[in-house]
From TrEMBL:
The gene is ahcY. May play a key role in the regulation of the intracellular concentration of adenosylhomocysteine. This is Adenosylhomocysteinase. It catalyses: S-adenosyl-L-homocysteine + H2O = L-homocysteine + adenosine. Transmembrane segments: none annotated. Keywords: Cytoplasm, Hydrolase, NAD, One-carbon metabolism. One of its GO terms (cellular component) is cytosol. One of its GO terms (molecular function) is adenosylhomocysteinase activity. It comes from Spirochaeta isovalerica.
Length: 471
């Protein structure tokens, strides 16, 4: 495949566009935040002239985000941020509108990174802005520029198959155009990042003085992390597990690795379905929260003989290791709901001598060990809610994606003026995003009077909490 050709889109089946369009219309009714932003800013086109690259799950909900950015004037190109998360009918519907999208469910890793490159390759040069989820588009840009400046990372040995594929892609681009990444970064003026893992990458680059442009941490907007991460996972985890396995969760023991916002939502979901829930934690604050919420808290090593279902939700690597899987119950289910696939040591499992893999159906694999016991791995250790189901419901994604649009507007208007650092959106905007979703749920707010507002040191219209307040 020629990376520099002018292929307008790459999707699994363009004939799925009509189906995708029907679901997009339904989703719009459940995404009041994005639709309100369209009504407010559609005429003024605040993103007019902005070239935007998106690297974010190509789902029906993301289609509504993409078309909102276009409605506000942007020129958008898109790729998914996970090889299994694309909904092919959503991708087809977006492509049918003339929006370049490069995504299909079941991409190889090589195809995935080539699609990310294509999304970055705007006609004029590169994007002005990036909507990122996990930091892969940002990583390509930064590593590409470092390579063109003489850095030798691409020539070093790789820790994983995926890292090796990234290096090969960068070398291939250099052979075609050894100034490509310089041109991309000359136009780039901002990044907005959707998820915890990607935000961690941005803060690390900011500390190391390698971040190229200002970035907005969308993940830590309250209406993202306290809603998408918690309430979204509370519904979509069970959806993914049940679509994959049809297992009865009531009465089972579910081990949740991590009790951050994602872990909290997962634990509530499993307990609500009647499971006994065990939490693994390293953080004493999160561990205390879990204990006071009534969960058993102990290390994974002490949970292996009890657990029927294991869920990683930490954002860290090597949480469930090969030696853990070797000691699990027969037919235990292992899955991950953190952004990357290295929370479960899938590569070591595949490489173990004597282990047999049986594909039950796409994204459901049964691994049998030499001693005869077997475990299920869902979505090859990638996001189970998107690999085995369709991700979070539209309503909660409206909260997250409203923040993404506001962040893109901010970066387009002020990105060139900002110092290179990682920012968050103001609390006032957080409250506005929440307010856009209340009427849809039949919620009516109480109102402060002037005396009450003065007493607590706020205005009657907010913001109602200081920036340091933790919801």
């Amino acid at each position: 495949m020629n990376l520099f050709d002018n292929t307008p889109f790459l999707v699994a089946d363009p004939d799925l566009a009509d189906w995708g369009r029907k679901e997009i219309v339904i989703a719009e009714k459940e995404m009041p935040g994005l639709m309100a932003i369209r009504r407010k800013y559609g005429d003024s086109k605040p993103l007019k002239g902005a070239r935007i690259t998106g690297s974010l799950h190509m789902t029906i909900q993301t289609a509504v985000l993409i078309e909102t950015l276009v409605e506000l004037g942007a020129d958008v190109r898109w790729a998914s941020c996970n090889i299994f998360s694309t909904q092919d009918h959503a991708a087809a519907a977006v492509a049918a509108r003339g929006i370049p999208v490069f995504a299909w469910k079941g991409e190889s890793l090589t195809e995935y990174w080539e699609c990310t490159f294509r999304a970055l390759k705007h006609r004029e040069s590169g994007p002005h802005l990036i909507v990122d989820d996990g930091g892969d588009a940002s990583l390509l840009v930064h590593k590409g520029l470092e390579m063109e400046k003489g850095d030798k990372w691409v020539d070093t040995s790789s820790d994983s198959e995926e890292e090796d594929i990234i290096k090969k892609l960068l070398k291939k681009v250099r052979m075609e155009d050894d100034h490509f990444w310089r041109r991309v970064t000359e136009s780039l003026q901002g990044i907005s990042e959707e998820t915890t893992t990607g935000v961690n990458r941005l803060y690390r680059m900011a500390r190391e003085k390698t971040l190229l442009v200002p970035a907005i941490n969308v993940n830590d907007s309250v209406t993202k992390s306290k809603f998408d991460n918690k309430y979204g996972c509370r519904e979509s985890l069970a959806d993914g597990i049940k679509r994959a396995t049809d297992v009865m969760i009531a009465g089972k023991t579910v081990v949740i690795c991590g009790f951050g916002d994602v872990g909290k939502g997962c634990a509530e979901s499993m307990r609500g379905l009647g499971a006994k829930v065990i939490i693994n934690e390293i953080d004493p604050i999160c561990a205390l929260q879990a204990a006071m919420a009534g969960y058993v808290v102990k290390p994974i090593e002490d949970s292996l003989k009890e657990g029927d279902i294991f869920v990683t939700a930490t954002g860290n690597r090597d949480i469930i290791r090969l030696e853990h899987m070797m000691k699990m119950k027969d037919h235990a289910i292992c899955c991950n709901i953190g952004h990357f696939d290295n929370e479960i040591q899938i590569s070591r499992l595949k490489a173990m001598e004597g282990v047999e893999r049986t594909e039950v159906k796409p994204q459901v694999d049964l691994y049998t060990f030499p001693d005869g016991h077997s475990i299920f791995i869902l979505a090859e250790g990638r996001l189970v809610n998107l690999g085995c189901a369709t991700g979070h419901p539209s309503f909660v994604m409206s909260c997250s994606f409203s923040n993404q649009v506001l962040a893109q507007m901010d970066l387009w208007e002020r990105g060139k003026e900002r110092d290179v650092s990682v920012y968050t959106l103001p609390r006032k905007l957080d409250e506005e995003v929440a307010a856009l979703h209340l009427e849809h749920l039949g919620v009516k707010l109480s109102k402060l009077n002037e005396e009450q507002a003065e007493y607590i040191g706020v205005t009657v219209d907010g913001p109602f909490k200081p920036g340091h307040y933790r919801y």
